[in-house]
Amino acid sequence: MTYCVALRLKDGLVMLSDTRTTAGVDHVSTFSKMHLFDVPGNRAIAMMSSGNLAVTQSVANLLHEGVELDGEVYTLRKVPTMFKAAQLVGAAIRQVYSVDGPQLEAQDVKFDVSMLLGGQIEGREMRLFQIYAAGNFIEATADTPFLQIGEHKYGKPILDRAVSYDMDLFDAVKLALISMDSTLRSNLTVGLPLELLVYRRNAYKIALHRRLTESDPYFRMIGESWSAALREAYRAIPRPDWAAE
């Protein structure tokens, strides 16, 4: 399993993924799930993946090599708009399905893939999409500024309560890390190291791309501080007034 979260905010993008891949309890591996397609000064595009590793790697490789869309062959470094980029990812997924889907289904293996695609191309709007296994997609908006894939249920309540479109980018980094910490504590199929990306609107280059391990002092502080804050909040809430009845 995996957990990836992306936030499209007024000032930019924050994207965070884990790196754990499992194929049974005795086969746990580390693979990057964040794929970069940046051309500094022209575009900064990042994609995070969840699902069958062979499928997601095939999709990512196609997007580097070229996929046909509307009679033209594009890569994510050449596609003219972010909407076309989302369409291209969908086309790559469908192409992989056409080759591998029937064989996977014959072996009772689900064609499992989903992607988060975010970025900006020079002269165009910054956008964030979630692309599904059928190749269709939805887009984040100011009203719904974050998207998640993978094991999202543990981190979603935190984001639902605290995310706002106009929040500071590094407050959003803190919130994404709290969301990830909650997921790590509750699901062993999500694991360190983490990959973090920050993009500032209209910069056309990645501001921060960082790998966080279990020894990272800030991420350790996040986990310890969030646990302590939850315990304190729990203790501060009064018991029900009918508890003594």
Q: Terminal Cα separation, in Å?
A: 46 Å
- Tell me the radius of gyration: 19 Å
Tally of discrete structural domains: 1
State the CATH architecture: 4-Layer Sandwich
List the total number of helices. Answer: 5
| Shape call | globular
Name the CATH class: Alpha Beta
Q: Which structural class matches the secondary elements?
A: alpha+beta
- The topology string of helices and strands comes to EEEEEEHEEHEEEEHHEEH
CATH topology, by name, is Glutamine Phosphoribosylpyrophosphate, subunit 1, domain 1
Low-confidence stretches: none
Order of strands, main sheet, comes to 12-1-2-13-14
Largest sheet: 5 strands, antiparallel
Mean pLDDT: 96
Number of strands: 14
State the helical fraction: 25-40%
The portion of residues forming beta strands comes to: 25-35%
The CATH H-level superfamily is: Aminohydrolase, N-terminal nucleophile (Ntn) domain
- Subunit arrangement of the protein: single chain
